[in-house]
Design brief:
Layout (H helix, E strand, L loop, with lengths): L3 H7 L10 H8 L8 E5 L5 H9 L4 E6 L12 E5 L5 H15 L4 E6 L5 H11 L3 E12 L2 H5 L18 H5 L5 H4 L11 H11 L9 H10 E7 L9 E7 L1
Parallel strand pairs: 1-2, 1-4, 2-3, 4-5
Antiparallel strand pairs: 5-7, 6-7
The structure holds S-adenosylmethionine.
S-adenosylmethionine binds next to strand 1, helix 3, strand 2 and helix 7.
Length: about 250
């Protein structure tokens, strides 16, 4: 059986270069032969979606993007949704469609490889986590270090500049949010970035994201079994990867 590393290399997704594959395999391997509902936020050229299709031969793969990408796929197990994954109504529509297709309104595994903006990462988590199946996993990629935001990194929204590679798509696609929206009020408060918020969650077992309502924070805190965060001591990229396992 091909390894995830080999599959990602063959499909030319940067999950290979970033050193994500061994970590993903650790969490996802036991689902390989199961009829799961798998969701990835962020399609770009479709490379990772094709990789997941190969890695999970019995899964239904739901691929979400703010850009129309349906022309990239021609497989009955890939279902493309043209939507903003940080919007509640879009998530509700997605779940209704997942229920129609699979007779189950649940997601077993999710990877957020969308805009990587603080606002989007937290809102998607808040709206989607209730639909994660018991014992399922919610992964967030490319979490920018708090220290890099502090030192003025132009990655992922801090400066209001178009962020990283991908031909500016993520920037345009998610209508870049200004600093004010991911910082507290008009103050610069790095405690609200995803890195710091998840770091506290790891320590205190309590989520306190400024982007989420009290009940969303409480739901996620109460229903999380385990959270693991991988950094550059394991990965080969300047960002973090987080796995939130549901009870
Ligand atoms: C890093 S690329 C995805 C790469 C792909 N997962 C891979 O590994 O080959 C990010 C994608 O997320 C999409 N995106 C950005 N913001 C989004 C949002 N709010 N909802 C859904 N997709 C979004 C962008 O249009 C872009 O295609």
């Amino acid at each position: 059986m091909k390894t995830l590393e080999r599959i990602c290399e063959d499909n030319k997704t940067d999950k290979f270069q970033h050193g994500y594959c061994p970590v993903y395999d650790k969490y996802f391997n036991k689902y390989r032969d199961q009829e799961i509902n798998f969701v990835e936020i962020g399609v770009f050229e479709g490379n990772s979606i094709r990789a997941w299709l190969e890695y999970f031969p019995k899964a239904q793969i739901f691929a979400l993007d703010v850009y129309e990408k349906s022309h990239l796929f021609n497989d009955p197990r890939i279902h493309f949704f043209h939507m903003d994954a940080s919007q509640e109504d879009c998530i509700n529509n997605l779940m209704a469609e997942i229920a129609k297709i699979t007779n189950r309104k649940k997601i077993d595994l999710l990877v957020d490889d969308g805009s990587h903006f603080q606002y989007d990462q937290m809102n998607s988590l808040g709206y989607i986590f209730p639909f994660i199946e018991s014992a399922g996993i919610y992964a967030i990629e490319d979490i920018v270090y708090e220290r890099d935001l502090k030192s003025g990194s132009q990655w992922w929204g801090h400066s209001g500049e178009p962020h990283h590679s991908v031909a500016g798509e993520c920037h345009l696609g998610s209508q870049i949010r200004t600093d004010k929206e991911w910082l507290a009020g008009d103050e610069i408060n790095y405690e609200n970035c995803t890195d710091a918020t998840l770091g506290r969650f790891l320590e205190n077992k309590t989520l306190d994201s400024r982007y989420l309502t009290k009940s969303q924070n409480q739901y996620i805190s109460k229903n999380t079994k385990h959270i693991s965060i991988y950094d550059d001591s394991t990965l080969t990229c300047p960002s973090k990867l987080c796995f939130i396992s549901k009870k």
